[in-house]
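Both lines are given unchanged directly below:

***
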Amino acid sequence: AAAVAALEQRTRASVRISNAVETPAWGFSSPNDFLNVGVSLKSHIRPLDMLTLLKDIERTMGSSVHRDSAGNYADRIIDIDIVAIDEMVVDEPTLQVPHRHLAQREFFLRPMAQLAPHWMHPLLHKSASQLLTDLTKRQD
C-alpha cells in the first residue's frame, strides 16, 4: 500500500490495483511466500525514467537489491517491475519490456489478466489471459 501511494504521489496518476496473489519464491528457495499485486497506470513518464522512479521507491521503503553477492535472487521487502507498457517494446541493458519472463511467471500473469485481460504481448501475439491459460496448462 505504501509503494502504491508513493507511486500515485510521484507520478500524479491514479492507479488500478489487482487482487493480491500469494506465491512461493521464484528462482530460489525461501521460507517466505511472496505477495504480488499488479498496478496499472497512465503516465507520460519515459520508461527509463519510470524505472529510476520505481527503484527509488524501493530504496525509500528499505528494499535491498534483489540479488545476493553470488548473483542469486534473494528475499526483499519490495520489488517493483515494469512488466508491460501498452504494446511498446523496450530493449535496453537495464530494462526489457515486455518483461522477459512475463509468460513464465504466474505472479505476473494473474494480476495482468485481471487488470488488462485483452492486452496483447507485442512479440508473442497472445493476450494476458491466453498467456495465463498456456502457463497453467504447462504447470498441470
Q: What stands out?
A: Helices lie at 2-11, 47-60, 106-115, 128-139. The two ends are 33 Å apart (CA to CA).
